[in-house]
Each structure stands twice: as structure tokens, then as C-alpha cells.
Design a protein that fits this description.
Length: 467
């Protein structure tokens, strides 16, 4: 692939790269949470309680989080464009399977397969941007990418709610076929410029098996403990087995010659600290929107569409300001925004403590989401830029995969822990507890960033001005 442009207006290839990369990652992230407001409708038609609702969300995030690391290696081995093509075709097919599911078991299986397809989309899309942009132009492009991918977590309830109320929850999945039909011809035109980014890459089979077993066992135990209890062998055995598999995964990755999770990357300060911040921030984001989406419908008695509209303030702020904050971080460094943004977002969520029954959206939920959205917009682009800017472009695929795996696993674990925080009944007190937990995670992410993130060395800025 040709050398990335540092400055100036985007050429035709760069515009195509940004469009397709944003579309691919948007789809993958969207389907991580698009079903949230459809869960009550799904339960009414297919059956299942809170555990089934958690599995509809976590089944997707489980396979995505477990396979996204090996997908980064596939991206480096076969080329970003080819993997995007494979991923989009598989994503469309598994989306159709979810849409025609006759019962909750088939839907959960379909979601697990859909997450596996989604894993192919995310690292390739971001690595494609990094390979085609550099300097301030790269930061701005990442800002645009993060604006849409980050907004997908909030747009998803709006889209899901509208389709549920106006038509059917099944269209939440069928609609994925439309962007795939649009993107595949564009990707076909880009194949000529696509070459593998790294030599000597191989697939880490044992690592893939261990991470899948580790996450699967742990998440199964966290979700099913609310049904069977912590003392049940059906919970303790998968929990202990999962933890042992995760430990084995780390040992294997430290010893294998070609790891899919190169632990040497964590010797890079901004990469390691940024991924800790990612875990805290994205864990809070997935958790609070899972809980809030259910609360607005089940306790607030809002229709699915209205509940989705209720989350729109954060979306608008994220879309409007992420590219601006991304460009600002490219000029001045990401540290300040990575520290301040999550703290502002966390303080915003604390406004949810003001929620009372009957629900008054404008005095409680609206100010919370407004402040939260401002903090989130200031966070996502600098966070991504700081982490991936610290990685050699030749390893962009695996670097992107690691960061996205961290964010997906964070959401996977926090949603799986929903039953622990909420308890046996989702009520207003449970929402308050959830808001406090999510706010603590966000503020923790800001504190970690303030302590550990370092702005780029001065010569990087000099190089940009000289170009």
C-alpha cells in the first residue's frame, strides 16, 4: 500500500478508505448494542428472562472479543481489504440467521456467529486508516472513525427502538444487509492497493482456543450465577476453568514465537496505560446503556422508539465534536483530553441518581446524557490516537485488534456482571447503583490517563510542520 499522506486534502483512495472503514466498524459496534431496546420485544416473542437478554448481548460480544485478536493477525497476514470483504459477507449471512431465529436459542447462536464475523471488521478497518493517513491527518481521520463507531453505541438504541415499534425487532438484524451491499463494490475497487502489512505472520491457534475458553467460561459463570447461585457446580466449574484458561493464555502468549497478543506491546507506555483506560471507559459505556435501555422501557414505561430518542443528546455531541477533539489531540497531544473527558462523562452519569418514579426525563436523564456525551466526545478520538499512535504502522492490525478486544471484553464482562449490581429486580434503586458503578469506572479511566499517558515527543510535531 502506498505511503500515507501527512497533510492536505484527502485523495480519492483516502476518501474510500475512510468511508468503508467507518462503515465496517460502525456495523460491528452497532450490533454490539443495537438489540438492547429490542430485548423486551424479543423476550415477549421468543421467551427468556434477564439471563437470555444478557446472552443476546453478550453472545455477540463474547465471540467478537475472543476472536478479534486473531482477526488482527489475519488482517496483517492476508491484507486489510480482503479480510473486510470476508467479514462483511459473513456478517450479512449471520445477520439474516438472527433475523429468522424461531426461538431464543437459535438467536443466541446466531449472535455468537455474528460476533465472529464482526471480529473480522474492526481491526482491519482501523488498520486501513492508519496505513493511509499520517500525522494530524491521521488524528483527524481517527476522530471521524471514532465519532461514528463510538456513536454506534448510542445510535443503536434509537435505531433498534424505531424498528421495534414501527415494524419488527427482526429488522434490527436484516438491515445489516444494506450497507454490505453498498460496501462490497467499493472494497473490490480497492483490492489492487491492498498488500499484507507484515511478513512472517502466522495464526496462533492455541492462543485462540485458550482465550475463547477463558472468556466463555468466565462470562457464562457471571451471567448464570443469578440463576444457579455462586455455590453451584454449574457456575464454579466454568468460572475456575475460564480463569485457568485465561492464565494459560497469558503464559502461552509469553512463550510462543508468534503470539496473537504480543505482550511486548504493553512495554509501550501509552499503549499499556491507554488499554487500561479503554477497559474502564468502554466497560462503563456498555454497562450503563444496557441498564438504562431496559429501565426506560420497563420502569419508565417509554416505548422503544422514545427510549432511543431519549439517548440522542449524547449521540449528537459525539458526532459533532469527536473530529474536533481528535484534531486538537493531534496538535497538542491526547493526555489532557484523555484525563478530563472520562471524568466529565462520569460526573454526568451521577445525575442519574436524580431519577425518581414517575420518570421526569428532562430533570434527570437529559442533563446526565448531555454532560456524559460531552465527556465522551472529548475522550474517544484522543484515546484511540494515543494507543495506536504508539504502535509501529506495520503492526497496526494487531495493535488495533488488541485495543478493540479490550473494549469489547470490558463491555462483555460489565454486562455479564449486571445481575450482581442490579440484583434480582431492575428498579430505580438498581439504576442508581448502576450509575455510581459506571461513573466510578469512567473517573478511574480519567485518573489512569492523567497519571500514565504521555504526549508525543516534540520532534513529531516538528515533522508535521515541516511536511
Amino acid at each position: 500500500m502506498r505511503a500515507p499522506l501527512v497533510a492536505g486534502r484527502m485523495d480519492a483512495l483516502q476518501r474510500q478508505v475512510l468511508l468503508v472503514a467507518t462503515l465496517a466498524s460502525f456495523m460491528a459496534f452497532l450490533d454490539g448494542s443495537v438489540a438492547s431496546l429490542a430485548l423486551p420485544a424479543i423476550s415477549r416473542e421468543l421467551g427468556g428472562g434477564l439471563s437470555a437478554q444478557q446472552w443476546v448481548v453478550d453472545g455477540y460480544m463474547l465471540s467478537l472479543g475472543a476472536l478479534i485478536l486473531v482477526a488482527g493477525s489475519l488482517s496483517d497476514l492476508f491484507g486489510r481489504v480482503r479480510i473486510l470483504q470476508w467479514g462483511m459477507i459473513a456478517f450479512a449471512a449471520t445477520s439474516v440467521l438472527c433475523g429468522v431465529a424461531p426461538n431464543d436459542g437459535v438467536l443466541i447462536v446466531g449472535r455468537i456467529l455474528q460476533g465472529a464475523a464482526g471480529a473480522l471488521l474492526v481491526p482491519s478497518s482501523l488498520a486501513l486508516i492508519i496505513s493511509n493517513f499520517a500525522g494530524a491527518a491521521q488524528s483527524k481521520a481517527i476522530g471521524t472513525w471514532t465519532a461514528w463507531t463510538g456513536a454506534s453505541n448510542i445510535i443503536a438504541p434509537l435505531l433498534g427502538g424505531g424498528l421495534v415499534d414501527l415494524l419488527s425487532w427482526r429488522l434490527v438484524f436484516f438491515i445489516n444487509v444494506v450497507p454490505v451491499i453498498f460496501a462490497l463494490p467499493v472494497l473490490a475497487r480497492m483490492r489492487g492497493s491492498d498488500v499484507p502489512a507484515a511478513a512472517g505472520v502466522r495464526i496462533d491457534i492455541w492462543g485462540t482456543v485458550l482465550i475463547a475458553l477463558g472468556l466463555g467460561g468466565t462470562v457464562y459463570a457471571l451471567i448464570e450465577q443469578s440463576t444457579f447461585g455462586w455455590n453451584s457446580a454449574g457456575v464454579l466449574v466454568p468460572l475456575l476453568g475460564g480463569l485457568l484458561a485465561l492464565a494459560g493464555f497469558l503464559v502461552h502468549e509469553s512463550r510462543t514465537a508468534k503470539p496473537m497478543l504480543p505482550l511486548s506491546l504493553f512495554k509501550i507506555r501509552n499503549f499499556s496505560v491507554g488499554n487500561v483506560a479503554t477497559w474502564l471507559i468502554y466497560g462503563a459505556l456498555s454497562f450503563i446503556f444496557f441498564i438504562l435501555g431496559l429501565y426506560l422501557q420497563q420502569i419508565g414505561k417509554l416505548p422503544a422508539t422514545v427510549a432511543g430518542l431519549a439517548m440522542l443528546p449524547s449521540t449528537l455531541l459525539l458526532l459533532a465534536l469527536s473530529a474536533v477533539f481528535g484534531a486538537w489531540a493531534g496538535r497538542r497531544g491526547p493526555r489532557f483530553l484523555m484525563a478530563a473527558g472520562p471524568m466529565v462523562a462520569g460526573l454526568g452519569l451521577l445525575f442519574l441518581i436524580m431519577v425518581r418514579e414517575p420518570l421526569n426525563y428532562w430533570t434527570s436523564v437529559f442533563p446526565a446524557l448531555l454532560i456524559f456525551g460531552l465527556g465522551l466526545a472529548a475522550t474517544v478520538a484522543p484515546l484511540t490516537s494515543a494507543i495506536l499512535g504508539a504502535v509501529d504502522p506495520a503492526r497496526a492490525g494487531v495493535g488495533s485488534a488488541v485495543n478493540n478486544a479490550v473494549s469489547r471484553v470490558a463491555g462483555l464482562v460489565t454486562v455479564a456482571c449486571a445481575g450482581v449490581v442490579v440484583g434480582p429486580l431492575l428498579d430505580t434503586a438498581a439504576l442508581h447503583r448502576s450509575a455510581i458503578v459506571a461513573a466510578a469506572l469512567l473517573i478511574g479511566g480519567g485518573l489512569v490517563s492523567a497519571w500514565g499517558i504521555r504526549n508525543p515527543a516534540p520532534q513529531v510535531a516538528l515533522g508535521k510542520r515541516a511536511s
